């Protein structure tokens, strides 16, 4: 069966003590989904393929769609400087030159990421995670970090880029970012398990995440710091993520011109909220989004024409954070590569 190697990869993650692994693959005329593990390490309730999970930076792809809708409507252009639109750029941040909408979307603005100022060490992790951050506070934190002119135009992945985009969306739409994303993405596609700013701690279908802090297992999951973030605030499900990718690549969310801009790499494989990846059997490139927290990893792929999708989320083993064990970052990167490889192999086998 085309999904056998994917199933094998999922069981391999479970053998390495993952809390849960969920995946779904779609192709013309077919669909396959599976889950392993539990929703909660205390209750041991089995996880289901359509359970809710934090999808981290897959949020950025959704935010990029909302921004490109502004472009479609002529409210702003991709090459337009945004400096004059954002109070933070004129006050504390002081960018080293004109910064365009495209640079924010493609992580080529050179702006540092506010997490570098927010998390200083292991003792900050719990208190910081339990505080709600406004987008203006995110910009204030970013302003405490150096924004070097030499970095403008180079790829520097930064959550602050997408916080700035959230502020632009709020200014031009006149409503909170979470409402903008619901109007632009969630409601048009009927993503009924996707939320942007709702606290879901008690949701029965939410998979819980865990980390180890100073030798003790701690529940992580959906934190106050994540809620409402344009860079990593979405809680969704594997099927909803596939629905989102299918809607995006079949032209249901933005114009063909905007989608072409989104797909086109700016630096390396990264375009506007998307990574371009290997070609399928027709010679067309595939695209993927990914999201990583200490306790969750998600990889989501689609064919360029929206006919194939494959998404996997792994709730990671309760492990120390990089503050206590720097090797954890390397291990998580390896898992992300293995997830992408397994999903790509399934799509290769199904490609017609």
Q: Uncertain regions: pLDDT < 50 for 5+ in a row?
A: none
Cα-atom Rg, whole angstroms? 19 Å
How far apart lie the N and C ends?
A: 15 Å
Q: Which word captures the global form? A: globular
Mean pLDDT: 93
Strand order of the largest sheet: 2-1-10-9-8-7
Number of strands: 10
Overall SS class? alpha+beta
Proportion in β-strands: 15-25%
Q: Which sheet architecture does the biggest sheet show?
A: 6 strands, antiparallel
- Reading the helices and strands in chain order gives HEEEHHHHHHHHEEEHHEEEEH
Helix fraction bin:
25-40%
The helix tally amounts to 12
Explain what the structure shows.
- The chain contains twelve helices and ten strands.
- It is an alpha+beta fold.
- The strands form three sheets. It has a six-stranded antiparallel beta sheet with strand order 2-1-10-9-8-7, with helices on both faces.
- Helix 2 crosses helix 9 (177-189) and helix 2 crosses helix 11.
- The longest helix has 24 residues, at 327-350.
- The protein is globular.
Give a quick precis of the structure.
With 352 residues, the protein is of the alpha+beta class. The chain is built from twelve helices and ten strands. It is globular and about 55 Å long.
Fill in the keyword field for this structure:
352 residues; alpha+beta; 6-stranded antiparallel β-sheet; 12 helices
Give the helices and strands, then pairings:
Blueprint: H1 4-15, E1 20-27, E2 30-37, E3 52-54, H2 58-72, H3 87-90, H4 101-105, H5 115-118, H6 125-129, H7 135-142, H8 159-173, H9 177-189, E4 210-213, E5 216-219, E6 235-237, H10 238-249, H11 256-263, E7 275-279, E8 285-292, E9 296-303, E10 309-315, H12 327-350
Antiparallel strand pairs: 1-2, 1-10, 3-6, 4-5, 7-8, 8-9, 9-10
């Amino acid at each position: 069966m085309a999904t056998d190697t994917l199933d094998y990869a999922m069981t391999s993650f479970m053998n390495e003590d993952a809390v849960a692994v969920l995946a779904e693959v779609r192709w013309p005329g077919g669909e396959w989904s599976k889950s392993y593990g539990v929703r909660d390490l205390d209750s041991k309730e089995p996880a289901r393929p359509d359970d809710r999970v934090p999808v981290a930076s897959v949020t950025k792809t959704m935010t990029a769609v909302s921004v490109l809708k502004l472009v479609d409507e002529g409210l702003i252009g991709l090459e337009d400087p945004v400096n004059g639109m954002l109070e933070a750029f004129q006050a504390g941040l002081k960018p080293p030159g004109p910064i365009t909408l495209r640079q924010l979307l493609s992580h080529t603005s050179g702006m540092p990421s506010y997490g570098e100022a927010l998390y200083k060490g292991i003792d900050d992790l719990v208190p910081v995670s339990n505080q709600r951050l406004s987008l203006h506070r995110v910009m204030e934190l970013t302003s405490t970090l150096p924004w070097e002119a030499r970095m403008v135009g180079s790829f520097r992945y930064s959550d602050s880029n997408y916080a700035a985009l959230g502020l632009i969306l709020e200014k031009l739409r006149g409503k909170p970012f979470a409402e903008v994303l619901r109007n632009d993405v969630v409601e048009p596609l009927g993503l009924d398990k996707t939320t942007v700013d709702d606290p879901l701690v008690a949701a029965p279908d939410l998979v819980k995440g865990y980390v180890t802090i100073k030798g003790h297992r701690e529940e992580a999951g959906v934190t106050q710091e994540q809620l409402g973030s344009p860079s990593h605030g979405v809680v969704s499900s594997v099927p909803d993520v596939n629905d989102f990718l299918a809607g995006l690549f079949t032209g249901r969310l933005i114009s063909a011109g905007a989608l072409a801009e989104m797909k086109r790499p700016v630096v390396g494989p990264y375009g506007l909220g998307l990574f371009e990846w290997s070609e399928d059997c027709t010679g067309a490139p595939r695209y993927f989004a990914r999201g990583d927290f200490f306790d969750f990893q998600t990889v989501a792929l689609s064919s360029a024409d929206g006919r194939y999708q494959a998404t996997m989320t792994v709730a990671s083993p309760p492990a120390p954070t990089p503050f206590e064990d720097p090797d954890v970052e390397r291990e998580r990167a390896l898992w992300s590569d293995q997830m992408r490889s397994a999903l790509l192999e399934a799509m290769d086998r199904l490609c017609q």
